[in-house]
Design goal:
The complex is a heterodimer of chains A (196) and B (257). Chain A is an alpha/beta fold and 196 residues long. Chain A has a single domain, classed as 3-Layer(aba) Sandwich (Rossmann fold). Chain A has an eight-stranded mixed beta sheet. Chain A has a four-stranded mixed beta sheet with strand order 6-5-7-11. A two-stranded antiparallel sheet of chain A has the order 8-10. The longest helix of chain A is centred in the last third of the chain and has 12 residues. Chain A is globular. The relative contact order of chain A is 0.17. With 257 residues, chain B is an alpha/beta fold. Chain B has one domain: Aldolase class I (TIM Barrel). Helix content of chain B is 34%, strand content 27%. Chain B is built from ten helices and twelve strands. Chain B starts with a strand and ends in an 8-residue tail after the last helix. The chains are: A alpha/beta (196), B alpha/beta (257). The interface between A and B is large, with 37 and 38 residues.
């Protein structure tokens, strides 16, 4: 199985790659359109801000390519937000593959931003991506912007209200947390993606 | 609900994990990767690796072990010690660290915090603060604490520095209360509460953990997001699974692995 990690120049792609290696999959890091198109699975990682993230995809000529993919695609953290319609972060138009907004957490006493740490997942919709996930199992989050809960939500988490932890629309999927840093729960969900 | 984090801190010197008492007299505790794996298996929520010799010696963190840790560990980890530029931080993040923590270099040049936040986002930027109460009753920051002969007391008030660090883009504050560090008499709750009151980003308590009750008090009374400790974990005096069961019984939200 060919798995590619889309490398548009963001940081910390290594840890996703190592997580896949622990599952026995050697994913290629690439910005090459032909390699991405030919892959069985495509992962769009990402750390940083939405504006620069989209700019890097544009500069790499990957925007239309990503929109045209038909194999399973997984966006992780910022990568998931880039799959959405629009982000409040820098007022950024994103890829529009999942018709959801990305909004900043509203800071208030006791609600620290960024949302950083382990939080429980609550299944909203049965999906093969969530196979074997028990109610309340925790994953590691670190982010200041989030996708509200909606029809795209497979699993939600709570932080001053529910937000999307796992999303899907057709062949496009997203995880707001870092599966590569979410111990056994993260490994299980990554494995589920590889088996879609 | 967001869980409170238990964070073992591994002080690294010359490729070994060490721990001193009141920042002095360091003794070797074991290999980095072995200890990291042990804590992961026991249910640590996050790890901090702190190169205690990097800043006093004016050099950056040795990166070899960062990638080794990133390959085997599937929980988040932060690297601290002598990171003084965006390029150095990038190398550590590319090697697989999730966050970088800056302390002495940020006191030398506070703009470093702005630069790191602009380059990587605030979620990657931790500001570590070593703080001690002076004779006049004020908490003030200390610099170069990895080497007692080079440690400097600064005129900067701890509360002022925490406020400034947040303005500049710190995504998390680790407050190391040096007066209580290494002696296991409990976290400095008065200082933690004072910092919590002005800290809008996650706050991690450091220095003084000796019993499970100390962790409970830091979470319940000082409302910290994480509690960091070293010697009680390295020595086996507190085992993380038992600590988390205790905290859950006490009404603290934790992750039971």
């Amino acid at each position: 199985m060919a798995v590619v990690l889309v490398d548009a120049g963001g940081t910390n792609i290594g840890s996703v790659r190592y997580a896949l290696q622990r599952l026995g999959v050697d994913a290629a890091l690439t910005a090459d359109a032909a390699a991405i198109r030919a892959a069985d699975k495509v992962i769009l990682p990402g750390v940083g801000a939405a504006g620069p993230g989209m700019a890097r995809l544009r500069e790499s000529g990957l925007v239309d390519l990503l929109r045209s993919l038909t194999q399973p695609v997984l966006g992780v953290c910022l990568g998931m937000q880039l799959l959405c319609a629009h982000s409040e972060e820098g007022d950024t138009a994103c890829l529009g593959l999942i018709d959801a907004p990305v909004r900043r957490f509203a800071e208030r006493p006791g609600l620290r931003v960024p949302h950083m740490g382990w939080n429980g997942l609550s299944v909203r919709r049965e999906h093969p991506l969530l196979a074997g996930l028990a109610e309340g199992e925790q994953a590691y989050f670190v982010h200041s912007y989030a996708v509200p809960a909606g029809e795209w939500t497979l699993a939600a988490a709570e932080y001053g209200g529910p937000f999307s932890a796992v999303v899907a629309c057709g062949n496009f999927h997203g995880m707001q947390f870092h599966p590569e840093r979410s111990a056994a729960v993260g490994a299980k969900l990554l494995k589920n993606f590889l088996e879609l | 609900m967001l869980s409170r984090r238990i964070i073992p801190c591994l002080d690294v010197r010359d490729g070994q994990v060490v721990k001193g008492v009141r920042f002095r007299d360091h003794v070797a505790m074991g290999g980095i990767v072995d200890l990291a794996l042990r804590y992961r298996d026991e249910g640590a929520d996050e790890l901090v690796f702190y190169d205690i010799t990097a800043s006093p010696e004016g050099r950056s963190v040795d990166r070899g072990w960062v990638e080794k840790v990133a390959r085997v560990i599937d929980i988040p980890f932060c690297v601290a010690g002598g990171i003084r530029s965006v390029d150095e931080a990038r190398a550590v993040l590319h090697a697989g660290a999730d966050k970088v923590s800056v302390n002495s270099p940020a006191l030398e040049r506070p703009e470093l915090v702005d630069e790191l936040a602009a380059a990587f986002g605030v979620q990657c930027v931790v500001v570590g603060v070593d703080s001690l109460r002076d004779a006049d009753g004020e908490w003030r920051v200390r610099q170069y604490t990895g080497d007692p002969s080079k440690t400097r007391a600064l005129p900067r008030r701890t509360l002022d520095w925490v406020a400034e660090a947040q303005r500049r883009g710190a995504g998390e504050i680790v407050l190391n209360c040096m007066g209580s560090d290494g002696v296991r008499q409990g976290y400095d709750l008065a200082q933690l509460k004072a910092v919590r009151a002005i800290c809008r980003v996650p706050l991690v308590a450091s220095g003084g953990a000796g019993t499970p009750e100390h962790f409970r008090d830091a979470f319940r009374d000082a409302d910290v997001d994480g509690a960091l400790a070293a010697s009680v974990f390295h020595s086996g005096a507190i085992a993380i699974p038992g600590l988390k069961r205790y905290l859950r019984e006490q009404g603290v939200a934790v992750r039971i692995a």
